[in-house]
Amino acid sequence: MNAVQGEVLARPTSATWVVVVLSGELDFGSANALEVLNEAVREHPGAHVLVDLSNVTFVDSSVLVAFATARSRAEAAGGRLGLYAASAFTRRLLEIWHLEPVREDAAHGGDAA
């Protein structure tokens, strides 16, 4: 089992973007990494939170629920949650759960819609 890590890479400036980098296997036991995501949403109401999944090797349904919850909280506070750089398998799971990842151009400053 890979170590799970989560960190807030950048705090928002006037652009209101926060980048959260997650890595490793994300499952029910990944409370530390998912708390980083929840903290970013909670501490920066109205911010657009971009979650970098490029180093994530596994995602289970409990994490998909956590992503959906974080997205709902971000939207309720006037922000957004974008999931970026997911593997093909993870991207498919996100699509099934209607958590479509943002396009690469959107993650680099374009429209994330």
From TrEMBL:
Signal sequence, renumbered to the chain: none
Highest taxon listed in the record's lineage: Bacteria
Annotated STAS domain residues: 18-113
InterPro entries hit by this protein: MlaB-like_STAS, STAS_dom, STAS_dom_sf
Gene3D superfamilies xrefs: STAS domain
Sample GO molecular function, one term: anti-sigma factor antagonist activity
PROSITE patterns reported in the protein's UniProt record: STAS
Name the record gives this protein: Anti-sigma factor antagonist
CDD domains tied to this protein: STAS_anti-anti-sigma_factors (cd07043)
Organism: Nocardioides zhouii
One Pfam family recorded for the sequence: STAS_2
Lineage: Bacteria, Bacillati, Actinomycetota, Actinomycetes, Propionibacteriales
